Amino acid sequence: MLRLAAASLAGTAIEFYDFFVYGTAAALVLGPLFFPTFSPVAGTLAAFGTFGVGFVARPLGSILFGHFGDRRGRRPVLVASLLLTGASTVAVGCVPSYGSIGVAAPVLLLVLRFLQGLGLGGEWGGAVLLTAEHAPAGRRGLWSSFPQIGPAVGFLLANGVMLALSASLTDAQFAQWGWRVPFWVAGALALGGLWLRSSLVESPRFLEIDDHARVPLAEVVREHWRLVLLTAGALSVGYAIFYAVTTWSLAYGTERLGVGRTEMLACIMAAVVVKGSLTPLVALLSDRYGRRPLCLLGCAAAALWMFPMVALLATGAPLLMFLGFLGALLAFVTMFAVLGAYLPELYEPRVRCTGAAVGYNLGGVLGGALTPIVATALAEHSGRVPWGVGAYLTGVALFSLGCFALLPETRPVEVEVAVVEPVAG
Questions:
Q1: Is the C or the N end of the chain the one with fewer CB within 10 Å?
Q2: What is the pLDDT of residues 101-160, one digit of tens each?
Q3: More reliable by pLDDT, 320 or 85
Q4: How large a percentage of the chain has pLDDT more than 90?
Q5: pLDDT by residue (tens digit) across 158-199?
Q6: How far apart are alpha carbons 84 and 420 in whole angstroms?
Q7: Alpha-carbon span 153 to 349, nearest angstrom
Q8: Distance between CA 346 and CA 420 in Å, rounded?
Q9: Phi/psi class of residue 79: alpha, beta or left (left: φ > 0; alpha: ψ in -120 to 50)?
Q10: Which among 30, 78, 89 has a CA at the least distance from the CA of 54?
């Protein structure tokens, strides 16, 4: 289990590195380089628009890879998705700017971002299911949390490389070629991930299935459509929080508040370190107290913390911004640490790869794709403190709270068997 969990974590971290490095670049440099005819705010919105395309592609990737995951196995999905995401990320680093090839530059950027999202849409379902279906029932929450640590590790890798380049290069060097380096690094990481995954074995639960679904998506839509919509709505707050902290706030702090790139990245990364470190502990609590109670607690905490978070961000003080980000990500991890076990347990094994991945990635469209765009537009028409952003995030949290309230508990219950002594006669 440890070797399997480590390989799943490493692969998930690499794929999310590819996804996050684009978000950081979109917040810092892609607007002026690929949309130079736009105003600064419009350029940032356009860059976030290409960022959002990756989220739109993720449900399509979950349908495509989920089909093969339910028909052919979880393991092949991990290899194919990693290859697609890694190749498209390296290609982003090679796209010439608008000044070199004109409108073809943002078009290429859009296509490659779509392919990134397609690959990541298949990654999560395969990695989580392979771990969850190998894990013992009483510790499924703990072992399934390892792939959930991957996004935090991937974010830290992506922003660590960006931070090092930002601190060591001039603004002109960073804009000219420095931002491309993290995308090229993705190629080496993808090769390492493929090597790690070459030793994985297929899920025993998949091998036990006698009657595989012929068209998993059709079965999910016909029999589990309500569950898919509820999981998508429930997960939207987690995506909204994470990308408000890691993407929108980075652009807002550097452009509106005048905080340096290095300071903003350091504050965000410090909060993500704490969040990633607590993921296994929260997941272990879900094995003891249940998945759903922790999700409800996380949603309630998010609804209460969004206004304080934007107020602390607006101060521009590094320590206060860190505290605001930390509170938001603690609410986030209370929900998302348990999803590696919770979502697979909600779906029957024959359509689990498709159902769980589609619900997970539709939540990304609702929360992750829209949040940087909506938050940027709301902040543009507010004063120094973007209260409109706080209201938007609070509304998303309350919506997700209602969806989680309608979902069932899935934690395996230990049944106590009474031992009866035999009686003569």
A1: C
A2: 888 888 898 899 899 888 888 877 777 888 888 888 888 888 888 888 888 898 888 888
A3: 320
A4: 28
A5: 888 888 887 888 888 888 888 899 889 888 888 888 887 777
A6: 59
A7: 29
A8: 35
A9: alpha
A10: 89
Q: At 75, list the tokens.
A: 């393991």
